[in-house]
Design goal:
This protein is mainly alpha-helical. About 90% of the residues lie in helices and about 0% in strands. The protein contains 1 helix and no strands. The protein is rod-shaped and about 70 Å long. About 0% of the residues are buried.
Length: about 50
């Protein structure tokens, strides 16, 4: 499959945009994961002290 220079630029721009949103989603998931881990650690600490 042969792409024109304009198509290549469009494909590249689409890939960059997808990467941008994927990285934002990853950051949100990492923050959510950290919150869940902290919540779990607090629950385990409460159980251990009971």
């Amino acid at each position: 499959m042969q792409l024109t220079p304009e198509e290549l630029v469009r494909e590249f721009q689409d890939a960059v945009l997808e990467l941008y949103f994927a990285r934002k989603r990853i950051a949100l998931l990492e923050a959510e994961n950290a919150g869940l881990r902290a919540h779990l650690a607090a629950a385990e600490a409460r159980e251990a002290s009971d």
